[in-house]
Amino acid sequence: MNDVFVYDAVRTPFGRYGGALAQCRPDDLAARVLGGLLERSPELDPARVDEVVLGNANGAGEDNRNVARMAALLAGLPVSVPGSTVNRLCGSSLDATITGARQVALGESDVVLVGGVESMSRAPWVVPKPQRGFPAGNAEMVSTTLGWRLVNPRMPDAWTVSLGEATEQLADREGVSRQDQDAFALQSHQNAARAWDNGFYDELVVRVPGVVLDRDESIRADTTGEKLAGLTPAFRRDGSVTAGNASPLNDGASAALIGSGSAEGLLGRSPKARIAAWGAAANEPQFFGFAPVEAANTALQRAGTSWGEVGAVELNEAFAAQSLACIRAWDIDPEIVNQQGGAIAIGHPLGASGTRILGTLAHSLERRGQRWGVAAICIGVGQGLAVVLENVAA
User: Fold this and answer.
1) Is residue 90 annotated as part of the catalytic site, yes or no?
2) What is the chain's mean pLDDT, rounded?
3) Looking at the domain 5-122+248-391, which fold is it?
4) Which of 24, 326, 348, 363 is catalytic?
5) Judging by DSSP bridges, how do beta strands 5-11 and 273-282 pair with one another?
6) Is 378 a catalytic residue?
7) Could you point out which of 23, 76, 205, 295 has its C-alpha 20 to 30 Å from the C-alpha of 154?
8) How far is CA 149 from CA 61, 84, 233, 318, in A?
């Protein structure tokens, strides 16, 4: 098996739902990050890209018909470069990375562009196809933005609760308090704002042409514990999950350039990190937020290392409650988690979040000189993914 390396990673700023990126098509956003990677590796002949693999969770609108192939063509890649789109909901772009890494590990590819995109603002409403022509009754339109839709009636009710209610159940099971959730959310905003101020994201973010957006649009640098504590629970009258301690709806794209050791000669640049291992896990759909626990444990075991050796963790913050539940189950120092902010502040455009955390992790390990890092993400319907990175310079 060949070693697999992360050579580069970029993303757009993440926009708010209905915000600065709402007028941008998802295939254009994806093309922007693919083009950004090519611009940053001018020695790479685009014809030497073996594959483009992108993740996308909704795929019901302008991102239909294999958005990876569409974005590759829009980015100016040769028509000879194939493209594939994968869907593992929130974990789609991390799954795309794993798919590309397998190709490199097996010797099928030397250079693969991976990533993901989501425009939650532009996710369409859909109407089920009628069983016969010219039905007499009305049809209900369903939003494809987030969560269950057109649910199969054979699914148990316990599995199909809303993501927010599921998180309330996880918070109850794991004993995560409202106060702890709000404190975690506040830290996310503070860390993200500080990282931007300190220039951490300058090398990771490519601007979108025609859009005035220099930073992630959902970050609230001026929020306080008092403001967060004053928010009303969103899913239960007496609940603990609020709009302030959950990730928002967002638009954005991210991508990474991965390859074999021999790709260094094609790119004219050294790798940032080695993809040491990955893991997937699944549990009850309503406890989706806890699935990263086993996924990360599996990945670390496969990498031949342990939590005691890990210096940085990028855990996608779907909700503060599920993030805290995972951190406590791993029994790790919370200070090594999301040191540059997380999805509660930065945003969570579903298909783009996996390579967002992967790129952030690779850059963080490089800057801090830490050897081992974990990128992990929870996924609706009860799944989790994790990737272990090793800093090649540590």
Assistant:
1) yes
2) 97
3) Peroxisomal Thiolase; Chain A, domain 1 (3.40.47)
4) 348
5) antiparallel
6) yes
7) 295
8) 15, 25, 23, 19
